[in-house]
Amino acid sequence: MSGAPRDALADLPGVDRLDSLTRRVLAVAAVALLARLVFLGARVSHFDEGRVGWWTLHFLESGQFEYRFIIHGPLVQHVNRVVFGVFGANDFTLRLFVALVGAALPLAALLFRDHLRDDETLGVAAFLAVNPVLLYYSRFFRSTLLVAGFAFVAFGLFVRALDTRSARYAHLGVAFVALAFAAKENAAVYLLCWLGATALVVDHRLFRTGADEAGVDWLLARVPDRDALAGHRAHLDRYVGHVLLGAAVFFGIVLFFYAPRSPDPGAVGLWQGLTNPARFPDVLARTVDDIANGYGYWFGGSTDHGNRYDSVVDEYLTYLGRSLRALGQYALPLMVLSVAGFLAERYTRARSRMLVLFAGYWGFVSVVGYPLGTDIFGAWIMVNALVPLTIPAGVGLAMVVRWARDALHGDALRFGISVFVLFLVVGQLALALGGGVYTNATSDDNELVQFAQPADDFRSAMDALETADTDDGNADVLFVSGSYVRTRTDAEGETVLNPRNAGIEPRCTSISDTLPLQWYVGKHDAEGACTVTVEGAVRTVEDQQPTVVIVPPTMENRLESELDGYRAETYRLRTTGNQAVFFVRTDAN
Fold first, then answer.
1. pLDDT value at position 2?
2. CATH classification of 459-585, choosing from 3.30.1330, 3.40.190, 1.10.3470, 3.90.320?
3. pLDDT value at residue 192
4. CA–CA dist 571, 465 (Å, integer)
5. Which end of the chain is more exposed for a tag (fewer CB within 10 A), N or C?
């Protein structure tokens, strides 16, 4: 591999002391970084991005934090609180942390280099860098890529710990497992996948067809004898110390991210508990309760699927079908080569590498398993499968490249087939990257785009808030109608506002229909208000002159004649339908 990334890296101090494979993987990571940062803020925020972004702003401005399981793990809020405080809040900085983690993920391939050939390791790094599904969700403020990445790194560190017999790698692995749990609740599913994959590779190791040694004999030979047990007993205190240290690392990281925060000295918060040991049990109890409630919601069968399907089987088959379509459109080379690499490892090698089989079992079961556990479909669930499948896919890619190289001066047919396969891989990858990641990032035709992604970019209307006086006490953004605001019927039969007692502001808005608008209201430090009727909207405009008035299309004609000095712009707040009309003051830039 040669070219600009490697040439640029060669000029950095210390790079010349790195081996060739490390330099090549660093070059791949540099490409991954560029691919993730270019136009990172170009896409308007998704519903989920807006929701977590708003709560992060709330944390930054108020100092108040608690684990809200509905928006998943707390890690991103803690990180982005710092990012927003340093660089400001916008769509670029919103996604920056996830993008950086995704860009660094190819470096994890080096953790497996003792079990893979150099070309296979490079193939793993390449798939982690440029697979369109992984790339799209590395440019998306959601924790799926984070939990998958941290679990993958943890797995690699545990492999290194076994290879080197170094406790340092084991403790680092535990730390990354804790980060995975802080990122998203389905980190627990990764542990189950690892247990299942371990059982399968052990079974494979015991089933030794044609070998001189029976599987049971191989297993018994590894049972420690009396002298070995005596040696282990002599180091028992050391082992216990490492176990306790690992537990302290795990629970310390989890507690740090999940524990509540409050600027009120009398509140239950992490810093209050650390500075006053007598209050620490209250902090610990509150954190445990919050985590138990969250995990009970996600794993206790209490999630609401909305009765959109006739049965669980119907729902599962629908989600599985959509997942396979997304994989076919945007991860076909990775999937085909992962199957090829896995089968070659399983059936053509005299001694199969357990790493490749383990990753294959882990990834393939995730493909068929995650559609069963999701309540609302998003192609992001396949990130959990694709990350481990990069290992057998890297093996498969290297195998095809070697076939082409070996046949270059010999078997013309095999060379032609190999080159054709590589051409299809590169061609499909280029088309998928262009159409799926960069040019159609909000299109309903794109299987990577989830329904709650706004199809139109309404930010030009919301950017008018930049020139508004947001400190004058008046409403800067007005939401109108029963579909955009929370209402109830009072004792006289009138429809009136019914704001939430707490939560995302403006509290009078219906977040199911209006997110991510609240994120843009919040990042402009603007004030929002609501009204139910056209008459109420006209009165509010006359009294407070909000910069932006947001109404459903059914009210556009009735309000247009009443709102002098406003221009109307129409945008879709979802991939299809849910149009909204933005009346923007013409004197706002």
1. 45
2. 3.40.190
3. 96
4. 17
5. C
Whether 55 shows a pLDDT value over 60: the answer reads yes
Alpha carbon 54 to chain centroid distance?
17
> Could you give the dihedral angle defined by the CA atoms of residues 66, 67, 68 and 69, in that order, rounded to the nearest 10 degrees?
-170
Which letter does DSSP use for residue 2 in this model? -
Token code pair at residue 243? 């176990």
Residues 233-248 pLDDT 10s: 666 788 899 999 999 9
Cβ–Cβ under 8 Å, residues 450 and 378: yes
Tell me how far the alpha carbon of residue 493 is from its chain's centroid: 45
* Range of weakest confidence among 294-298, 367-371, 424-428: 424-428
Share in percent of the chain as helix, strand, coil (round to 5): 65, 5, 30
262 Cβ neighbours under 8 A, 6+ residues apart? 63, 64, 65, 268, 269, 272
Give the pLDDT confidence score for residue 302 in this predicted structure: 46
Least confident of 141-150, 153-162, 402-411: 402-411
Band (pLDDT 50/70/90 cuts) for residue 88 is: very high
- Return d(Cα 386, Cα 131) in angstroms, integer: 9
**CA-to-CA distance for 188 and 554, rounded, in angstroms?**
46
Residue in the structure block whose two tokens are 């010999």: 410
**Locate tokens 């004197």: which residue?**
587
Q: Where are the domains of the chain?
A: 4-303+311-438, 459-585
Nearest to 550 by CA among 571, 526, 522, 525: 571
Q: Which residue has the higher pLDDT, 309 or 268?
A: 268
CA dist list (Å): 77 to 19, 82, 255: 38, 9, 15
Q: Which token pair is 327?
A: 């994989």
Cα angle for residues 80, 177, 380 (degrees, 5° grid)? 60
Residue for token digits 């769509």?
A: 91
Joined together, the tokens standing for residue 203 give 């079974």
Q: Of 524 and 422, which is predicted with more confidence?
A: 524
The answer to whether 537 and 478 are in contact (CB under 8 A) is yes
Q: Encoding tokens for residue 190?
A: 């990764």
The residue whose two tokens read 């910069």 is 547
Q: Which residue in this structure is represented by tokens 């708003």? A: 54
Lowest mean pLDDT among 124-128, 153-157, 561-565: 561-565
Task: Give the integer Cα–Cα distance in Å for 270 and 256.
Answer: 7
User: Is this structure's pTM higher than 0.85?
Assistant: yes
Q: How far apart (Å, rounded) are the C-alpha atoms in residues 514 and 500? A: 15
Inter-helix orientation angle 144-164/383-406, to 10° = 60
Closest by Cα among 284, 257, 283, 292 to 74: 257
Q: Between 526 and 4, whose confidence is greater?
A: 526
Question: Which string of DSSP letters, residue by residue, matches 151-199?
Answer: HHHHHHHHHHHHHHT-HHHHHHHHHHHHHHHHH-TTHHHHHHHHHHHHH
Alpha-helical regions (H) of 184-307: 187-206, 215-221, 226-234, 236-258, 270-275, 280-299
Distances in whole angstroms, Cα of residue 311 to Cα of each of 319, 333, 451: 12, 33, 21
Indicate the average pLDDT of the chain.
91
